Amino acid sequence: MTRKVSAALLLGTALLLAGCGKKGEGELEKGQVVATVDGKDITIHELNAELQGAQIPPNISPEQKKQLEQAALQQVVNRRILSDIARERGLDKTPMFLLQERRAEENILVQMLQRQMSGAIKQPTQTEIDTFIAQNPDLFAERKIFTIDQIQFQAPRDPAVLRKYQPLTTMDQVEAMLKQDGLEYKRAPSKLDVATANPQLVEQVLKMPKDDIFLIPAGRVMVANKITGTEVQPLTGDQANQLATAMLQQRKFQDLLKRDLEPKVKKAESEVKYQAGFGPAKKPAAPVEK
Questions:
Q1: pLDDT one-digit tens code per residue, 240-253
Q2: Which conformational region is residue 177 in: left (phi greater than 0), alpha (psi within -120 to 50 degrees), or beta?
Q3: Which residues does 149 contact at the CB level (< 8 Å), separation at least 6?
């Protein structure tokens, strides 16, 4: 259904632009207006904003870039046509639209805030990169790739059920327990590259006893893992520099968030008033050491 609508819109838009007669392609304001829909302009700035959300590969040819621009413009045109139809039907006056409009506005502002803050982070110097590489041999000179026996399974509704899995020492025991609990699962070998995995996870894995089983939440599923093999593949040269640069920038970004945003967020959160039953869940108390 959607594909048919899109195809029809593309054809209809082409006819509309070609047969409008009010403002031909050569009469558009050069450098500003790239198309008109029902007398309303689509500007180059709108097109550029559309392209920002696209994954444009580097070093593409001018012809490929033009094709991407044309495809992005058609998306804007199609969206403009359909949104005009929705307005004709009064959908922009409904409570649901107003709620979704506010939600979209807030999401856009958050994204722009993130981009503004990340844009303020300076590129690390080569000295910083070299120092980081030297201080993290597990990620570079002694980079490890773990072979893992992995079981993905449906997360139980009651998280307390997972406590039964803590004493287990083999993946066969985990599989047997999943069958006993009637939870769907899939078992397959996997790889964990310490250079590309979540840094916090890597830190925990490197500190774990060799034969431990560790559980990782992943949305609506849990992942049980046990390391069955380790391979050392040093990461050097440009690849090492690129990874070190990305990790240093991420650390600087996190530091910036803690310094600039965290105090304001905590202050604002402390002033929020919730109706009974709608407040955030209380964090569980830390276990008492015996």
A1: 999 999 999 989 99
A2: alpha
A3: 171, 187, 189, 225, 226, 228
Partnered with residue 40 across adjacent β-strands are 37
Dmax (CA) for the chain in angstroms is 84
3-state secondary structure of 184: coil
Q: Percentage helix, strand, coil, to 5, in the chain?
A: 55, 15, 30
CB 239 within 8 A of CB 143: no
Residues 6 or more apart whose Cβ sits within 8 Å of residue 180: none
φ/ψ of 106, rounded to 5, equals -65, -40
> Contact 232/144 with Cβ under 8 angstroms?
yes
Retrieve residue 117's tokens.
């803050």
Name the residue type at position 139: L
Residue 23 pLDDT greater than 50, yes or no:
no
Q: What predicted TM-score, i.e. pTM, was given to this entire model?
A: 0.63
Q: What's the Rg (C-alpha) of the chain?
A: 27
> Using DSSP, how many helices (H) and how many strands (E) does the chain show?
9, 6
Q: Nearest Cα to 242, choosing from 196, 177, 277, 183?
A: 196
Give residue 1's pLDDT.
43
Judge whether residue 283 has pLDDT over 90: no
Average pLDDT over residues 142-148: 94
